Amino acid sequence: MFEHINQKKERLDAHRPLPKYTVKSLREKLLLEWTYNTNAIEGNTLTINETKVVLEGITVGGKMLREHLEVVNHRDAIHFVEEIVQKDEPLSEWQMKSLHHLVLKGIDDEYAGVYRDQQVFISSAEHIPPAPFFIKEEMEQLMAWYEQAETKKMHPVARGAMLHAIFVGIHPFIDGNGRISRLLLNLELMKDGYPPIVIKVENRIAYYEALDKAHTQEYDDFIKLVAGEVEDSLNLYVSAINKNTS
To answer: Any idea which UniProt keywords this protein has (predicted)?
Structure first.
């Protein structure tokens, strides 16, 4: 499953460091697309051009304050992910809560960075997240799984996909679990030198269906979906290499 991904990653690594302005433009492109798509999946109605305008500090008329905050907050959360990667910090529950605080600040300050104290349900999914009093135990089990030797040996794409799926199955927060799970997926990939990926809003149905299967411990479809998005991001970087070397 990962043969093409490994080959493209090796090609990317062989040409690092990429030119400064190429890296800057790629980062800005992916930050915009990541922010637009992750929010659109959750129902944000801003278009990709409107998202770009909000990231530039301009208010879009006729749109809710919450939708503006979702864009700005997600950008700040991406910056925090980049900081974790640069510092090579190990994954922790504190990081997850901090990411959630960034995502929900100004939107729901009471629950920003705080595990939920109520039962929640995932719309259109058969899976029911655990009751609130099980969250601490489930998150400890997630961290134990993440830190075990077998998990460390997994391909980064599979490990990141499973981290996403297990986390969102726990659904530890009142709101914002999807955004956090996609941030954690990209955090895991970026730690291993992969560019961030974009789960595209047009793939939302396939994404939800694969996640629903993952909640029954059948992870293959979800890993394949993530692998496809990883290859798309690698293709973008490889195309930049080809243009710079042609």
So the answer is: ATP-binding, Nucleotide-binding
Tokens 């939708």 -> residue: 67
Q: Is 208 labeled as ligand-binding?
A: yes
Kindly indicate the confidence band of residue 212, based on its pLDDT and cuts at 50, 70 and 90: very high
CATH number at residue 101: 1.10.3290.10
Closest alpha carbon to 104 in 33, 185, 42: 42
Question: Scanning the structure block, which residue is given the tokens 């991904």?
Answer: 5
Does residue 174 sit within a domain?
yes
Query: What does each C-alpha distance from 145 to 54, 148, 167 come to in angstroms?
Result: 38, 6, 11
CB atoms within 10 A of CB 231: 18
Q: Which residues are catalytic?
A: 171
Q: Is residue 202 part of a domain?
A: yes
Q: How far is CA 46 from the centre of its chain?
A: 19
> 175 labelled as ligand-binding?
yes
Whether 178 has a binding-site annotation, put simply, is yes
Instruction: State yes or no: cis peptide before 19, omega within 30 of 0.
Output: no
